Amino acid sequence: MPLPDHPLLTGPRRRRTLSAVTSVLALAALLAALLPVLTARGTAGSRTADGVLTVATWNMCGVRRWNCAETGDAAAKRRAVERLAGEGADVVLLQEACAADAESVRDALGGTWRLAFRPYSWREASGRSRTEGCDGRGQGAAGLALLSAHPLSAVRSVPSRQPVAGLGRGILCATVEVVEVRVCNAHLSLPGSDRAHPGREYRDDQLRALTGAVAGRRTVFGGDFNLRPPGVRNASGRVWPDSAYRVFRECDQDFAADRSGRPTHESGHKLDYLFTGLPREGCVVRDTGVSDHRALLLRVDTG
Question: Global pTM?
């Protein structure tokens, strides 16, 4: 079941002791199944004074049991996000993040950085759901994280069709107030991820929900779509909505009819995307060295 769209908001706060962190994470585990979380530090900065917004997306492979045990520890992944911010990223969309790691990254970035988090869920065949946890004590929930160097508003989990039984991922959106740009982070379902209906396709419905949530042109949306670009060699190409490459343009889309893009996964396929309705200023594919996914960075002119 999708999570409701009522975020828990908190203001600036100081660094906490380890015991306080443990207490907060315990409380977060109870709230995670119902609420995305937004935390904040400081006041708005001036990183977008030139009208350019840089958005990055990265599946950080933070859940070790999901074939990520050999991709580096939490500290290495934190440093990788810091490098993305150092390259100019004002907003970072993370998939397969642990709540504790996302908090650690936000604290390391410091200053004005905000964090919104949406946990994944696991649904039993009986219909009973629970928050999907990370490996290791104190790591909290696994889920989507949205980091921003500027204040966020209208933080929402977008309802989308999810497996009847199995892992539910999701869509998390927020508005970057300083430039009035809507950003959305999505992690789509893998084929066969529904334990009750292994042959059922969910990515088409999830993409429709995602594009429907960003009807305006002042948006950047993307994430890990677990899907190759549309084309004659992609049997799953039919799940793509027409608007994806026509109404919007993808980070690595060279011209209107282009449906390619550089690989973003160790398999040699492009699985990660950033779309926008704003003028694009540049697209970078970055190998962080600590994930099976590469990061994408998209610069847009916000006018």
Answer: 0.87
pLDDT in tens, 122-141: 999 999 999 999 998 999 99
Quick check: 18 and 48 in contact, CB under 8 A? no
Edge-to-edge strand order for the sheet containing 129-131? 129-131, 121-123, 166-168
- Rounded to the nearest angstrom, the gap between the alpha carbon of residue 58 and the centroid of all alpha carbons in its chain is 7
- Relative to beta strand 8-9, strand 37-39 is parallel
- For 59-101, the pLDDT digits (tens) are 999 999 999 999 999 999 999 999 999 999 999 999 999 999 9
Cα(282)–Cα(278) distance, integer angstroms: 12
Which class in CATH covers the domain with range 8-301?
Answer: alpha beta
Cα 64 to Cα 116, 186, 205, 290: the distances in Å are 22, 20, 28, 12
